[in-house]
Amino acid sequence: PLIAWGRGSLDSLGRQLVGPVIVGLVALSLLVASGMRDPYPLLAFTLGAFVMTSIVQELAKGVGARRRMYGEGSLMALTRLVGFHRRRYGGYIVHVGVVLLFAAFAGLAFRREYDVTLKAGESVSVADPFGRRWTFTSDGVYADRVLNRFATGVSLRARPDGGAPRLITSEKRQHFDTRGLPSFEPSTEAGVLVRVRQDVYVVLGRVGSDAGETTQLRIIFNPLAVWLWVGGLVMALGGAIVMWPRAEPRRAAGPGGTPLRHAHATPSEG
Hints:
5 helices; elongated; disordered C terminus; 9 strands; 4-stranded antiparallel β-sheet; 5-stranded antiparallel β-sheet; about 270 residues
């Protein structure tokens, strides 16, 4: 999108790419300095920074041009810029969604899983991919029957270091028919704590038959998982902007509703 078809030159392209290249290299340096060594996430995040900077740069140029020409505010200039050039800037928004998707996929490379066994009142401490410690405390097992299913679940209080505790529940569910017979294989409902940096999953594996109701659990940290959804929504928004129909200009109607043709007046016609 940075190359003007048939009118581009290596000099102009080079000037446009200076900023994105610098930002990409800075992002790469910061990631390496933070301890990241896996080449595939490094490549994904570096290219993502490069592409995102290119898009922001193009939007900033367009908004700046409208502000100088029409004296519009930044928000109005951005709205009209996208509205008048839907295919171009809608395509840029789709590209933003793709960058977010690739960043989320790269983040999932650092997923962490822990298999733990807890009784009611017991706790376990584990580290997430960002090095932060989390403490999970079991509130015990519960059983519930609702409509056409019977559920056995466990409640955990999840507390990150320096943060407030949040309740996460995971269940094993058995559905049954009107005769009380099982209608499907038992299913597992994972407990999910959604955050900007990562999603925290708790999956109930098995409930023991002992008096202490021992539960086998899997705790999963998925970095940047929420950005899969955000990226998909941004792509859908960009696609809608690209495909949104343009309003056809109306023609003035003459007698009987017949559209008037544009005619050039002659001096004799006044």
